[in-house]
Amino acid sequence: MVRALTISLGVHMNQIIRKVIIAVSLLWVCEASGDLRATGDLGVVIERETASVQIVNTSKPAVLSRIEGLGDLSHASVVFSRDQRYAYVFGRDGGLTKIDLLLDKIDKRVIQAGNSIGGAISQDGKLIAVSNYTPGGVKIFSADTLEQLAEIPASYGEENKLSKVVGLVDAPGQHFVCSLFEANEIWLIDAKNPREPSVKKFKDIGKQPYDALLSPDGHYYAAGLFGEKGLALLDLWQPEKGVEPILEDYGKDDEQLPVYKMPHLEGWTMAGDWLFVPAIGQHEVLVIDKRDWALVKRIPVAGQPVFVSGRPDGRQMWVNFAFPDNQTVQVIDVKDFNIIKTLQPGKAVLHMEFSPRGEAVWLAVRDEDSVMVYDTETFAETARLPAYKPSGVFFSDRANRIGW
After folding, report:
1. Beta strands across the sheet bearing 148-153
2. Which regions of 208-283 does DSSP assign to beta strands (E)?
3. How far apart are CA 56 and CA 43, in angstroms?
4. Least confident of 82-91, 135-144, 263-272, 298-307
5. Which CDD domains does the entry link to (predicted)?
6. Quick one: pLDDT band at residue 47, thresholds 50, 70, 90?
7. What are the φ and ψ backbone dihedral angles of 267, each rounded to 5 degrees?
8. Of the given ranges (7-21, 109-123, 160-174, 286-300), which has the lowest mean pLDDT?
9. Average pLDDT in the 278-288 region?
């Protein structure tokens, strides 16, 4: 009886001690990190002129913190770890910065090249790939430590010149895909062995691929061509078929306008059977039938489009523009391809990002030193956050998308 009581008291005491330890641990975490945060509710705003980023809450628009010392962010882009805790920022000066979104600090930072243009995170979340202008090529890093695992020079031709690398995306099967601007090539990189990646090269795909995109299902990679009309299309399910030119005849007889800012094909959108693409040097958004890659419609818009961004449900396309029309944003209804709203948020609307389910869109309005939040149904401004010359908004739900 006494033995049984002693054992019972011992077990009870152990339970109490365990609960105390858990309570103390939770108290320590709260004190160390402030209010607990859900990582799926976070985002990053790029402040390029001050080499800083803001960490923001996306459900209740608010600035949580500012991280400084990120170098040249004039063409910065961001990807997120699979657990959405870390943001990887690619700077124009070759900087690769890993930011801890919970502890509001730089976790690691390396200068990996002289001039960088973006990057991607692998399908398994363990690798970071960076596309470089100078020296031209792709470098692969450990997502955990930022240790460099491989370097792939973008050499081409008999003289082994180095090409600028653009349009780098992640693809299924632990692959990366990129385009080589001067080489006129698309490369399919197999990174299953990250220290010795293999490369399949597709040559003579069209003149000067300047940017590229991946379809949301990872099926197609399309590179925009600056040196000629059309797009170069690679079917990743059947890469042995090679690269196919599409839209070769688009606009060949049109007067070419001065190009003030290159459109971003990464801002294209698929909605059902339709693909929406910004036209180079024209005041148009192109609608393409992805079943046969034929041009269906040319939608006149207010200026030269930069991003054509789709609401997550595919019903609306939001379009921003290059100078001198960069104070304007237009909304296209996918139902009938008509413009249903024209907004004037302020000078230099540089980037747009939808909330994960599309009830709101955030606009980076550089010359107003603001990030503005709009309701996508009423088109009313619902919030405005101060920011130093914001040029990009990136939300952590990108972690769950292919090619983002």
Report:
1. 115-121, 127-134, 137-142, 148-153
2. 209-214, 220-225, 231-235, 243-246, 269-271, 274-278
3. 5
4. 263-272
5. 8prop_hemeD1_NirF (cd20778)
6. very high
7. -95, 15
8. 7-21
9. 90
Query: How many CA atoms lie within 13 Å of 287's alpha carbon, on the beta-carbon side?
Result: 19
Beta carbons within 8 Å of 134's beta carbon, 6+ residues apart: 94, 113, 114, 115
- Which pair of tokens denotes residue 13? 């005491």
Alpha-carbon span 255 to 225, nearest angstrom: 17
3-state secondary structure of 288: strand
User: What single string gives the DSSP state of each residue in 321-370?
Assistant: E-TTSTT-EEEEETTTTEEEEEE---S-EEEEEE-TTSSEEEEEEGGGTE
Q: Which of 21, 19, 15, 73 is nearest to 44 (CA)?
A: 73
Residue type, 339: I
Q: Quote the strand ranges of 18-126, DSSP E.
A: 42-47, 52-57, 62-68, 77-80, 86-90, 95-100, 105-111, 115-121
Lowest mean pLDDT among 97-101, 264-268, 385-389: 264-268
Q: How far apart are CA 2 and CA 359, in angstroms?
A: 65
| CB-CB contact of 225 with 210 (8 Å) | yes
| Collapsed DSSP state (helix, strand, coil) of residue 216 | coil
Which residues face 53 on adjacent strands?
Answer: 46, 67
* Residue 116 structure tokens: 């960088």
Residues forming beta bridges with residue 138, ordered by sequence position: 131, 152
The C-alpha atoms of residue 186 and residue 234 are separated, in whole angstroms, by 9
* The predicted structure's pLDDT at residue 24: 39
pTM of structure: 0.89
Q: Which amino acid is at 103?
A: L
Partners of 274 in the β-ladder: 271, 289
Q: Specify the residue for token string 């990009």.
A: 392
Q: Higher pLDDT residue, 38 or 257?
A: 38
Query: Quick check: 31 and 343 in contact, CB under 8 A?
Result: no
Peptide bond into 386 cis (omega under 30): no
pLDDT at residue 29, as a whole number: 41
Q: For residue 302, what are its two tokens? A: 């207010």
- Of 25-29, 37-41, 363-367, least confident by mean pLDDT is 25-29
pLDDT in tens, 54-74: 999 999 999 999 999 999 998
Query: Contact 306/277 with Cβ under 8 angstroms?
Result: no
| 156 CA to centre of own chain | 27
